[in-house]
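Aim 2, interim progress. The first record below pairs a target sequence with its C-alpha cells.
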Amino acid sequence: MDANRQLSADTDSPGVDLLGMARRHWWLVLLMVGAGLLGAGQFTGMQQKVYESATSVLVSPLGNGQDANSTSGRTKGDINLDNEAQLVTSTTVATDARELMRATQTPDELARQVRVEVPPNTTFLVITYSSGDARTAQAGSHAFAEAYLRNREESAKTEVAGRIAILQDKLNQLNASLLQINTKLANLRPTDPDRPNLESQRTTATSQINTLAGQLNQLLTTTVNARKIIRDADLPSRPVKPNRLLNLASGAMVGLLLGVGAALLRERLDQRVRRPSDLPRRVDVAVLAAVPGRVKPRLDDVFAPFGAGGRIFNRLRNEVLASIPAPNGADARVALAGQVVVVAGASRGAASTVVAANLAAAFARTGAETVLVCAHLPDSLVDTASVNRMLGVRSMPGLSDVLAGRFSLSSATQRAPRHPNLSVVTTGGTASAGGLLQSQALRDTLATLRERAAYVVVEAPSTATSADAQSLASLADAAIVAVELRRTRNTEIADAADQLRRVGTPLLGAVVLPRLAGARGAGERDAQEVTVADDMTTVLDKLPPKEPEEPMVPKRIRTAAAAATVTAPKVVPAPPSVPKRQTRTISVTRVRADTAGENGADKRR
C-alpha cells in the first residue's frame, strides 16, 4: 500500500494536474477564450484607424569639410544624428511643416504625431507621420522632411555667411597692417637696422593674407544643398492601427489565462474527487485499486475474469490477502479462512455494490468458498445497483428476513449460477428491519458464515447516510471504502475513513471507480418489470419455511478441492404457523435465460 501511495503522489505532478484540470473544465476555458475574442473584436471596432507614412532623408555634409562616415549608426565629426533627430521634432521645423501642410493644428500637436528613427550603421533619418487619414499621413511625413531639410540648409547658409564675414574682417585687418609695414619700409634707408624686422613682418602678413584669401574663395564657391530625400512618403494602403490579428491573439491569450484561472478556482472550490491521486494527497487514504474510465463498469455487470476489470479486481483480491497478515507459525491459507471484509461506500450510489460483487467473485475464482452479504436495508436503497441482476439470484428471502426471524440463514443463502464457489445473501424484503444491523442476530449470522465460508464480503450502507457501516466494520477483519469519481466528495471520504478507524477495524484503502452509468435499458436487457399486488402471505407460502437452527459442527470448506462432508442433523417438522396477513406490493423482474454477460457466458436467472 505504501508503494501505491508513493506512486500516486509521484504521478501527481503540477503539469499533469494542470492539463487534467483544463481537460475537465474545457467548457469554462473555451467560454473565456470566446469571451476574450469577442472583447478583442469589439475593442478593435472601437479603435480609431491610424495610418503611417515614412520619408527617408540622407544626412550628408554640406560642403564645409564635414566627415560623413558613420560609426554604430551615428556620424562622427560635426554631424550628430541624435541631435538631428531631435531637430526634426523641434518647434521651428514643426512651424515650417505646418505652413507646408496648411494645417490648423498647433506646431506642438503636429510634432507629437512625428516619430524619427535612425537605422543602425547608416546616416539616414526615417521620419514617420501618423494620422487618421492616409493622405494626411503622407503629406505630414513629406512636410516634416522638407521643413527639416530647409531648416538645415538655411542653418548651413547662415553658418557659411558668418564664416565669410569673419574671414573678410581678418583680411581687412591684415591688409591694413601690410599697408603700414610697406609705408615704413619705403621711408627707411637700405642700411637701417629696423629694415630686416619690418621685412619679416611683411612676409608673415602676406602669407596670412594668402591663406585667408584661399579659405574665403573656397567658402564663396561652396554650394549649400541639403535637399536629399532618398525615399519620399507614399500613400498608405491600410491602417497600422488597429491591428486586428494582434488584438484577436491578445484577446484569446487573455481569455485563455482567465479560463485557466477560473478552472483552477473552480477546481479548488469543488470538493469532489476527480482522480485517484486526490485520495492520498487530500484525505490520506491509500488507493488499493482504480478502475480506468475506459472500462466503464455497469450496474448489472460482473467483470469477466480475463478482462481489464477482472484483472484489476484480481489484483485487489491479492492486495486484501496481503494486507491481513497470518499469525506467526500458521499457514497463511488456513489462517485467512473465515475472514470478513466490509465494503462501504463513502457517498450514496452503487459504488459499494459494484466493488463488493466483483471482489466476492474474485475470491470465488480462487476456489475458496465465498459469501457475499448485502446489508443495504430497503429503507436505505437509494441509487444502488441490484445484486440479484448482477449475479442472477432471487431478491427474497435475504438478510433482513433472517434478522427478523422469518427465514433461516440456509434458506436465504443462494448460489450464484455463474460462480460455483460464490453464495449470495441479498438484502431481503422485510420493511420493518430498522436497527437490526446492531442486533445480536447479525453477530450470530456473521459468526455462522465465518464457519461455513473462507471469505465473507459484506456490502455495507454508505457512511454518508447511515451508521450501519460503522457497526458492520466493528464485526469485520478489514474494511474497504468504495469511491465514485466526480460524485464522492473529499469530506465524505475523510468522514468514512474516520468512522471505520474509530471502531478499530483496519482500513485497507479505497477502490476508485469512474462515474457509473445507468443500468441497461429494457430493450438491451429484453426484460420487463411487472408489479404484482398480492397478499404477502401468498408470496411467503411459495418460499421454503424457516428451518430451526440446531448446533452442528460442520467442517470448513475453504477450497473446492478441500470440500468436506457436512452432516445435517435431523429436523423434526413443526406445525406450520400461519403468518399475519399483510398486503404488500413487490417488483419481480423476468430476464431471458439467453442474456449474455460480460465474459460471453449466458446469465442463468
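The second target in this work package is listed in the same format:
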Amino acid sequence: MNKFFTLLAFILLFNTASQAQGNSIASFKAYGHDDDVVYGMSGAISFYFKVTPLIEMNGSKLVLFFEPSQALIKSHSYINLVINNKPAYSSHLGPDSIQKIIINLSRADLSPDKFLKIQIKTLLTITDDQCKDLDNPAMWLKIKNYSYLSLVKSNKNFFDNVNISNCFDSKKAIVYPSNPSLHDLKAVAWAYSRLKKTQTREIAVYEESKLPDSVRNYIRVGAIDKLPADARALVKVTPQNTQGLFYLHKSVSLLTDTIVHMVDVKGRLVPVKTVTQEQAPKEVLFVTGGDDTGYEKAITALGNMNILNSTYGDYLLINKAENTFFKTIDENRSKLSLKQIGGVSDFLSGIGSLKSAYSFKNSDFSFTPKEVEIRFVANYSGLAPGDRGFFNIYLNGLLISSEKLDASGKLNSSITINRYQHHKYNTLEAEFRFYPTNGNCKNSFTNFFAEVDVDKSYLESKNPFITSDLSFYQYPEAFNNGTTKIVVSEEYAKYAAGAMGEIIYELNNNINANNFPEFVYSKDLKPTDLKQYNIIALLSKDDKVLKEFRDAPIQFDRNFRLYNTDNNSPVYSLSDTVSNGLAQIFYGVSNNATLVLTATGTHVSEAFLAVSKSITEQLSTLSSNVCISDVNSNKYLFNINKSSENLEYIDTKSGLTRFWDSYNLYILLGILILILLSFLYVRSKVQKSQDLFND
C-alpha cells in the first residue's frame, strides 16, 4: 500500500513539474518596470507587453500586486483594470497593505500587433470630500514590480506562427565564428542592434565554441561555406553567389531534466528528485550569404526594418539590399514634432492635475543642442468667470514654465531651455491644472477638457553645442554628420563583437536611424582615413594605430596613471591586471569626431562591453572625455586636457623623482621623528646641566 501511495505521489509530482515547465513567469521588473506609482484622485497608468507566437493566451494569467497609500479610505477607493481597451476588473480596495488581483487572460486580450495592453485606473478617497482631496499628496497607489504574467508556453502551431518577422522578439543570444571576419563582426553588431530595439533584457554574445547547450533560441551569423557541419545541415536553402540569405530553422525536441522538490517527511524537509520531460522548441535564425557579396547584402538587410518586419516566411533570399534614406528639407533634424518623438494625442478631462508625458534624446537631433525651444499648441475648454486654470511645463521633474489659462480655449506656449537644463535623455511633461468657480468641484468633473496637438507642438534646436574639446555628453550625435569608420585590432576582433553591437545600437538609437558605418582592421587603416572619416576604434593597448591619435587625451605609448582629484589616490594605471575598459572621445586631425576604446586584463570582451555601455549612460557632467569602467560596473569619469593634474606620465620622471613620489611620506615621517628625538636629547642635556648647576 505504501508503495502505491509513493508511486501516486511520484506521478502527481511529475505532472505538476511538467505543467510548471509549460508556464513562463515574467515579472514586471523583467520587462523593465520598477515600482510604478499612480498619483491623484483619478489616476491612470498603462503597461505594454510584447507576446511571442509561442505563448497561448488561453489559460495565461495576470497577477497584479499593488500597495495603496496608508491614508486612503479603502472602502471608498477603487481600482479598475482595462485590458486591450475593454473593462476587465473593478473593485474597491481591501484592508491589506499589499493587495493582489488575479485575472485570467484569453486570446481576445491581445491587440492585432500582438501586444498585451493593460491600463490601471484609480478613484481614490481620503476625506470623503472631493474638493479637499484634489491636491492631497497622500493620494497614490503603487504597482509593485514583482507583479507578473504567467504565460502558457505552447508548441501548437509553432511551425505555422513563427516566422522571420516575429522571431526577433524571443531571441536571446547571437553566435559568431571563433575567428570572426569583419563581415561576421558587422553581422553581430547589426543583429545586436536589432535585438536591443526589441528587448529590455541583456543580450548574450557567444563564440560558436562557447555556446551553452541551454541556449536554443539565437541568431547565428557566418558565411555559408564556413559554418560547421552540424549547423550547415540545419540550413535547407542554398544561396547562390551574390545572394544573401535569412533562414529560420525551427524544430521541437524532447528534453529530459531533473528537478528537486522539498517534501515534508515527519516534520523534516527532504529533497526529492523527479525526472521531467518537456517538448522544447528550437529557433535558429541564420544570417549568411553565398559569398562575401551576398553575406554583405544580408547584413545590410539587418539594418532595414521594413524588410525584417515584412518577411513572413522561414527564409528570404536577398538579391538586392540597400539602406538609402532620402533626406527631406529638414535633413539636419533641428525641429521635431511631439508626434515624431512618440507623442500621442491624449484627451484629458476632469479637474486638478491633468498630465501628458513625452521623452526625447539629444541624439534625436542631428547635433547636440545648446538651446532647445519647447512649444506646446493645444485646445481646451474655455474658463468661466471665476475659474482658475494653469498650464505648466516640467522638464526632468522640474517646473520650468507656468502660465494662466483664459476663456479663449487656445494655447500656444513656448519656452527656451539651455544646455544645463536638458540632459542626454529627457522627460517632458505638460500639465493642465483646473479649479472650478468657488471650489464647487463636485459638480464640475466633466466641465474641463484639454488636448495637446502633437503635430503642431514641437522641439526645435536653436544652436549646436560647440566646444573646443569633445565630451561624452555629445555622444553619439557627434557622429551623425559624415561617414564613420569602425576600426578594430585584428587580434582583438573576437573580443569586440558585443561592444560593436552597443555602438551600432547607439548610433541608430534615434528617430531617424540611418548611420551605417564602414568596418576595417586597424592594420588596413590609411592615414588619409583619419582626416576623411569619423573614427570609432576598438584597439589593444599595443596597437600601433594608437600613435596616430596625437590629439587623444591619453597617449598609450607612455606609461601613465590617473588620479582622483578629490583625494589624489590612483584610480587607474596602464599596468593594471584588473579587466578594465578605457574610452576617450576627442576631435581628430580634421576636427572629425573620434572615439577610442581599449581593454586590458583577462576578460577583454567584458571590459570592452562594460565601457561601451558606460559612455551611453546619463552622465552627470558636460565635459567628461575619458571613462574608465571595469567588469564589476565601477565607473570613473575624467576631464583630461594638457594642463590636467589628475593625469601623470610615469616614464617622463627620473629614477630619483619616482623614488621620492613613492616614498616621500615615509621620508618626511622619518625626518620628523629624527627632529623630535634630537629635541628630546637636547632637552635632556639641558635639564641635566640645570640640575648640576642647582646642586
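The longest strand covers residues 244-265. This observation will shape the mutagenesis plan for the next reporting period.
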